[in-house]
Each structure stands twice: as structure tokens, then as C-alpha cells.
Automatic annotation (TrEMBL):
Catalyzes the oxidation of 3-carboxy-2-hydroxy-4-methylpentanoate (3-isopropylmalate) to 3-carboxy-4-methyl-2-oxopentanoate. The product decarboxylates to 4-methyl-2 oxopentanoate. Residues 4-346 form the Isopropylmalate dehydrogenase-like domain. Homodimer. Pathway: Amino-acid biosynthesis; L-leucine biosynthesis; L-leucine from 3-methyl-2-oxobutanoate: step 3/4. The lineage of its organism: Bacteria, Pseudomonadati, Bacteroidota, Chitinophagia, Chitinophagales. The gene is leuB. It holds the Pfam family Iso_dh. This is 3-isopropylmalate dehydrogenase. InterPro entries: IsoCit/isopropylmalate_DH_CS, IsoPropMal-DH-like_dom, Isopropylmalate_DH. It catalyses: (2R,3S)-3-isopropylmalate + NAD(+) = 4-methyl-2-oxopentanoate + CO2 + NADH. SUPFAM superfamilies: Isocitrate/Isopropylmalate dehydrogenase-like. Belongs to the isocitrate and isopropylmalate dehydrogenases family. LeuB type 1 subfamily.
Length: 351
């Protein structure tokens, strides 16, 4: 099979982790006789430096002409607390999600027994967690109006949702729950927020079409605690944009490192694949970042290409590598391996 993949490194450690994912994809291509053609685009601070814009038109064109996008990370401290900055790198990632109509951000959280000692799982005698977060990606407070008035003394971030936006991701999440353990938690703040009450009403309606799935409601504050004390109760978590962003980073603590978590962002056409972690600029260029989140994102891309066997092989390679003690510095600060070494081990296993 032949596939065109847009590669966007973005900022910080984006380049070095994405290069390891490409190594894994190249190994898969060799074993299964596929052809993956890569084309590079710019986004984030790297794009602002080169063109003045966080998402140049050329990148949008490259992405739209591809079957999928493999993305690294966005963010650069030069733009933090800088009132003179007219654009921010993060505007690039929000804009490309809108351009590609990516509304469903899927973040699987699977723990590795050999890393349980790093997480609350050990303390609570929990052997393994395996759940998936469905984060709404194209609306909510991220895309509402952001403005100040009263001479900068008052700030506003507007959160808006409509029924259509909720329904489309709810259907995706329920379909996934049907193929898993048939449990879905809607996480919201319906005791306070009007948008959350619309989520409850709409999701309750959608649930009628999925009578085999058990639907439960949970407030975000409770969900944040339950993820630590009893993560095994979750199968599919469905939530809005901001809550999903926060809960998925928290889930990094459950697996032992945020660097392990992958994601897929899907909409009507193109798939967009990126690790959950951000740009971690302090580590950039040092070959110490964890490439597993990016490599597992490439595995999700293979699933999207309808290559389940290939995706499983990548996941097996990751499990073997971690369970054999080959880990990066975020997991073991004494006996650690470099980003590129982990990438080599994983691609060697695939080959
Ligand atoms: N690879 C994920 C990433 O770069 N995250 C940094 C970030 O600020 N993302 C904004 C968001 O995910 O909404």
C-alpha cells in the first residue's frame, strides 16, 4: 500500500521524537512492502521564525494533500509572558485542527506493568489500566472569543458548544465503547456550566442508540480524583476540549510518564497523529526525550490506514523495549537510554 504522510515536527523535542516514529514506520514499510512518502510542513514557533505565521498556507496544502499527518509538538518559552508577541505557536495547532475539521481527539491510556512502580497503580495494587479519552477538539473555550476590557482589568474566554458538535464526537465514543467494555463516562461540570448541561442532555439522547453501553456521568473534579484512586473503573471517557486536555495529561502520571501517551485526532477525512506531550524545550536537541508517545501515535496512524497487524507489531515492539528495561530519562534518571537508541531498538524489533 502507498500512503502520503505530512510530517510536521513543530517545536522543541518535536523533531527528535517524530524522527523515531518515522524509523518505526520505515521498518513497517520494509517488512510489509508498503510505501510511505513523507512531505515536511512547518507549524508553531518554527513556522513563525521562518514565515511570520504559526500555520503557513503551504503547511495546510501539504496536510490536505496527504492521507495523514504526523505531528511532534508545539510551544516555545520565547512567546510566554511576552506582551509584544502578536502571535503564539499554539495558534498553529488550533488552526490546523480547524482546517482539517478534526473534532475527535482520541487518547488511549495503557499502562505497562514494568513501570507501575512509577505511578499510583503500585500504591493502590492496581495491575493494569486500559482506557481511552475522547476529547472534543474543535470547539469549547479554546475556540470561543478571548478578549479583555476595562483597560485590561477584565478578561473573557467564552465557552460555546452546540448539539451537532457534541453529537458527532458522542457517536464516535459510543461506537468505540461498543467494541471495548461497553462503559462510557461523560465528564463535565453540569452543576455549574450551561455547556455541560447541554452535553448531558445531548449525550443522553445519543445513548438511546447504544443501549448496550452503560452511560455514567461524572463531574470533572471527581474524575480528576477517581483517575488516581480508581482508574480501573474507566473504559471510555468522553469530555469537552479543556477537561480532556487536563485529564489526559493527568493520565500520564498513571502510566508513569506523559511521554508514553499517543493520540489520534480524527474528523471527516484526514487523520492527525501526535504524542500527548508538549514541546519540552529544555530537552530539545539533547536526545533525552521519550519517543514512545510519538511511536505509538504512528501505530494509531497504521490503524487508521487499516493496517491492524502492522500497528500491533509496533505496539509489541514498544512493550518489549519498555519491559526489557530500555527506557528514557523521564522514566529512569540513572539507567537511561537515549531517544535515538530507543527508536533504534523499536525499529530493530519490527525488522
Ligand atoms: N503534542 C501535543 C502538544 O504539542 N501540546 C502542546 C499544546 O499546547 N497543545 C495545545 C492543545 O493540545 O490543545
Amino acid at each position: 500500500m502507498k500512503k502520503k504522510i505530512a510530517v510536521i515536527y513543530g517545536d522543541g523535542i518535536g523533531r527528535e521524537v517524530t524522527e523515531q516514529a518515522i524509523k518505526a514506520l520505515d521498518a513497517v514499510a520494509e517488512v510489509y512492502n508498503h510505501t510511505f512518502i513523507y512531505e515536511r510542513g512547518l507549524l508553531g514557533a518554527e513556522a513563525i521564525d521562518a514565515t511570520g505565521e504559526p500555520l503557513p498556507h503551504k503547511t495546510i496544502d501539504i496536510a490536505k494533500k496527504s492521507d495523514a499527518v504526523l505531528f511532534g509538538a508545539v510551544g516555545d518559552p520565547r512567546f510566554d509572558n511576552n506582551p509584544a508577541a502578536k502571535v503564539r505557536p499554539e495558534q498553529g495547532i488550533l488552526a490546523i485542527r480547524k482546517e482539517l475539521e478534526l473534532y475527535s481527539n482520541i487518547r488511549p491510556v495503557v499502562s505497562y506493568k514494568s513501570l507501575n512502580h512509577l505511578s499510583p497503580l503500585k500504591l493502590r495494587n492496581i495491575e493494569q489500566v486500559d482506557f481511552v479519552i475522547y476529547r472534543e477538539l474543535s470547539s469549547g473555550i479554546y475556540f470561543g472569543e478571548h478578549y479583555t476590557n476595562n483597560n485590561g482589568g477584565t478578561a473573557h474566554d467564552v465557552c460555546t458548544y452546540n448539539v451537532h458538535e457534541i453529537e458527532r464526537i458522542a457517536h464516535s465514543a459510543f461506537r468505540t465503547a461498543q467494541q471495548r467494555h461497553k462503559k462510557l463516562h461523560l465528564v463535565d461540570k453540569a452543576n455549574v456550566m450551561e455547556t455541560s448541561r447541554l452535553w448531558r442532555k445531548t449525550v443522553t439522547e445519543v445513548a438511546r442508540q447504544y443501549s448496550d453501553v452503560e452511560l455514567k456521568f461524572m463531574y470533572i473534579d471527581n474524575a480528576a480524583m477517581q483517575l488516581i484512586i480508581n482508574p480501573g473503573q474507566f473504559d471510555v471517557i468522553l469530555t469537552e476540549n479543556l477537561f480532556g486536555d487536563i485529564l489526559s495529561d493527568e493520565s500520564g502520571a498513571i502510566t508513569g510518564s506523559l511521554g508514553l501517551l499517543p493520540s489520534a485526532s480524527l474528523g471527516s477525512k484526514i487523520g492527525f497523529f501526535e504524542p500527548v506531550h508538549g514541546a519540552f524545550n529544555e530537552a530539545a536537541g539533547k536526545d533525552i526525550a521519550n519517543p514512545v508517545g510519538s511511536i505509538l501515535s504512528a501505530a494509531m496512524m497504521l490503524e487508521f490506514f487499516n493496517m491492524p497487524e502492522e500497528a500491533d507489531l509496533v505496539k509489541q515492539a514498544v512493550s518489549w523495549t519498555l519491559n526489557s528495561g530500555f527506557v528514557t530519562r523521564d522514566i529512569d534518571s540513572v539507567n537511561y537510554y537515549y531517544t535515538s537508541t530507543i527508536g533504534d531498538l523499536i525499529s530493530d524489533f519490527i525488522l
